[in-house]
Fold these 3 entries.
Entry 1:
Amino acid sequence: MFSSIYILINSVASGVNNSSSISDILMLWRTPVAQYWFLYALFILFVIWSIIPGGTTPNLILTTICTFVSIMPINLGIFASSMWMSLFFGLGTVVNIKKIREWPLIIKNSIIISQVLGAIFFLNIINENAITSRFFAVLGIVTCIVAVSLLDKCDCVEKSMLVLSRYSFPIYLLHTIFTAGFRIVLLKIGVNNYLSHVLLGIIVGIGIPIIGMNIIKNCKILLFIFYPSSTVMCIRKNKSY
């Protein structure tokens, strides 16, 4: 549904990053749009990982196989995105994030500094390929975890992260719809400043989904669109009393 809304907005309005045709809705089963490709890739990865027994060794073996397949010069079709994400998905099944958060401060600072220096100097020197792109992506993920573990010691940052985590799913689903719409409005009224588009887009893309969820949280029909399983479980639980 959200993919269809995104396509409709892009098909009837000019000034968007990626124009769409209404007929693209008919191909959503095969070709995702915007950030919704991640849901397709994630579903395929869950299916693949469900066929192996649990444990670190099987997960590492499957991660290695999928990563090797992803860097091969072959057309993977609808599996291309999921295979590219397999390295990060697989590492997520075996890496204990809590242990990373407990690393000594000197190691955390070293990782952040190396990432910053790498972004400034090495990315302009090293030719990006299938291996280097994954290496820097993994390093970036670790850096984010380390940075958050340092920042969440601040009370205001921790509270902000808790709010974002609570509304992360509706923000993910809706942010492009509202940012695209708002960008069109800005262009129509003659606002072309890049920084204004970015800052206002971030505010709108995060703020409106949070406000919207607080408005519809008591409406079971609308809530079902976002959280079908949990909504049905709540309804059944209420009926059982």
Entry 2:
Amino acid sequence: MDSSLTRVILATLGGYIFLLLILSIYDWVEEEFPIRPIKQTNSERIQHPFYHEEAIKALKRFSQLSTSQKGAIKKKLRNNLISMEQWVKDLQQSDLQIICIGELHEESTRRFLAERFFSTVNTDVLLLETTPDKLKSLIRRMNNGRDYFPLLDADILDILRTVKNKNPDIRIWGIEETDDQEKHQSKHSNPRDQSIAHNFWKKYKKGSRHIILFGANHCTNESNWLFKNLWNHASNPLKEHMLNVNVLGEHQKGSLEAFVYFLDEIGIEKQTFVVPDTSALHPQIHELFKSLNRQILEQYCSLIVFRSF
């Protein structure tokens, strides 16, 4: 083969390999050292126009009620909606052992949980939506002083640091379904959550407070999801010590935004608040906000709503 042609071919291959190497290094750096996203602020009061119609209709129907009926609803709301501080205080004094916190994987939610929940709540065991191997990598990054690293698209290191500072002896486990479990899945509905539930029970310690932080659906009352699976397999005495909670920013769901708008308009203005028992809300609330009822109130025992976080 002509030597000049050989040199051209080798140079081309060398350039191609060099380019692949550069791209591989770039991908590794981007994955290993992700940039913290810039905090986006949307101050618009109405961000879900479709659901806003539900708020307008609810206000109209509310205005048509008698003075005594309106007073009863507002009194009930004032009793049912408590501050985050009061709820945390009540939680600390309770003997709950399993708390499933359903979240949307967003930066604002993780910031709120780190600063307003995990910094004040005593936790013995924290269980996360990741595998044991991936959790080891996250903890290694935290111990190495990394400021930011996402788990499911939002920073998790701040929560890890917070719980460790609050309780240096806390046990942190990753209970996500492993690749090996996925290969041996049964044909039952939602086998992933069955695997997660199995992993939870392997880490469960009687008498300890376990906080599960998972995506919102996993903590609902829907059959075949994690919390319902745990509930079905818990002893009757333990069921009395279990709680599922949904934590949401006021604009993260349109149905919730409509409810918060309604509260503001009728004079029940709240900042961050908690509905400790969703079933205890006035029946008219369930009737006026059917989307909220279907999506959240029927699915969780408690609801945390944070604003401007």
Entry 3:
Amino acid sequence: MATVLLFSILFFAASYLLYRGKLARFLGNRILSMLSSRDWAVVILGGVIAPIIFYYAINQHTPLGVRKWNIIAADGMLILVQFQSMFLLMITASYCLLRWRLSGESCGLVRRTDWWAWSALASSLAAMLLIGSNGYEVSWMVFTAVGFLVYSVSFLLLRGIRGLISNERLISVAAVNRGMIILLMLSTICTSLLVPFYYVDEKKWIRADTLYTLNPEHLELDNRSYRTMQAMKQVLDERLEMIR
């Protein structure tokens, strides 16, 4: 779902530039070229790398990583919402930082990042932290975290629709979209690097599992089922012994 969202936004941003024509693409590229290597470093580190590191730190090294529960805890919402929060945090942070650096380098052609964009960033961050505080069952924290995500997604959709149907500040929107295409491609590449890491992590925990490991000596049952069957057999033997 998160991958679909990321590719949808990337497709939308690319389609916008094609829709607006060559002039918008040319002027947008000219404004984007005003960014220095330092500006790009700030945007990439803060908008792409930092959210991934933050998610990894929370997920692996804090009690907010929802790793104490299994995947069906809270109807599977814990893992889903926290992972979606990372994606939205990457997108909103990239957008905010890109506009912030462009506004300083373009002599006012690109407006500064407004409070709405920063609030969408804060909403994504709050969702990631709040869902980690939830217990095994669905509670108000789950619904609140989902509400935060809906707010962030609504911001992205409404901001994209407004840029598509309005001709106001056309060059500014074209420059931001052009930059976002680059950042979204980097986000896709960086998040794909998490796949082999979590695959290895999954294999580690499977090897450490002592309850659901299959054992040929246990009639092809996992250890948990075999122990349960043995306990039931012991109780049954005790009852039969009492009857005798």
